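Researcher: I'm preparing a figure for a lab meeting and need a structural model of a single chain. I don't have an experimental structure, so a prediction will have to do for now. The sequence is pasted below. Please return the structure as tokens so I can convert it later.
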Amino acid sequence: MNISEPQVLLGKITALREKLEKAVREPVSHQLITEDNLGFIARKNRLASKLVESAECDSVIIDESKGDQALRMPVKLTSKARELLIHGKDLIGDLRNLANAFLLYRTDDEIVSKKGVQESGALIKLYRETTAMADTALRMIPNFPESPSSQLQLCVGVEAIFQVISQRLRILKQACNAKEKELQKITKLVELFDLILIGNKPDFVDVQNIVEDILEEVRNGETLRFLREDNDYPARYVACKGLNFARVVARVIFQDAQLRLASMEIIAAALFLDIGMIKIQASGLVEPERIHGKMSRAYESHCFIGAELLRQSFPNMPLLAEAALSHHENIDGSGFPSGFKGAELSPVIRFLAVCERYIARCMSSSSNKPLNTKGALTSVLIDSEDGKLDKVYARFLLAISFYPSGTGVELSDGSLGIVLANPLSKNTETESNNQIVAVLREPDGSYLSKPKILDLAGRTSPAVLRGISQQEKDDLIGTEFPEWNSN
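Model: Understood. Here is the structure written out token by token.
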């Protein structure tokens, strides 16, 4: 035969290929299925089922037995597919590491009830969707077809899915880190409360560290976060209120040079104002649901109790005890517990009294309603005009506006967004529509591909119509923009 002839050579190659394919795909003879062969087949099938759990597998056995002991040979994965398999396993591992965090940490307006209701919200939904997406994409890889070209084409799609998962994972990690930092602050403050309540002197360095963290938030321009806790847990409730109080103080104290010089001690005093409340609640003198209701003598006693505790624990810092005693006083003498008025109240106490009223009224909203920041600020300004609170210090609160940064808002045209900043202006007292807002949803309900930054200063329309609750943020914004909802 003359092998130089193309037709003859092509025929030989075709015949050889058919012979090889027939040998590979031909059902295994019954006589060849020995006990050893059955053990080998079983081991191969177990290997296929555990592929996702092992990074060392280079191939997948796909059991497509049809009829009598039919067996396919292993499907070889390309290097790209193996690389994606390892990357997918790493993503699954990172998501598993976040599982405990999402069971333990709560968002601002979500309260764990005595029945142990698990956290819900946009971040939990994002976590569950991302985990399901990663698991589905990872299971696709072992079922790729044999053809290397087909595998490479499918790898492009799986790689795109993994990119989306990685982006979502970054958002989830940032949210968990933020929640962990908040939890650490609350836990540390509760530990300090415990030391003070038993008469010990805590290390003031621990207090300074919390204050420095709060001041760093202000320097970095972070959004104003209000923490919430069920008042059935007195120590945690007081810790959350103290942190909220300190954050407001840190954002408005810069407007007065004298107050700014003592900012460390003043912010520290804000953290411990209501420590006496822990003791009277623990003794059963005040029912939790009556804390924000009608004042009683037992409730008023928390001022004396807190002042005495802080006087013993911080003997060299009398401002802390003075603030705990007098933060409910009014300059017209209508406050409690002593009815001090006018010059009997120092400038620092007048300033703290203004901030305390604001925080107490903000936190009076129920968990399924928006923080009443506008109503709280309005009522403080009215009280200052009526002579109950210091008018100058009350105006300091205009620096954080009716809608503090981070607040979800609905605009007058029906669009939804997040307040980014509230720049001060010369007409701050009369100009309430000076926010910079990131618009996320259009008036017709459609979501923008990316946020639209809108400066409302000097505009007559649109204006901020109302604040929206955390639940509304979860439902209306969180699904499409979880990264904007995680603060």
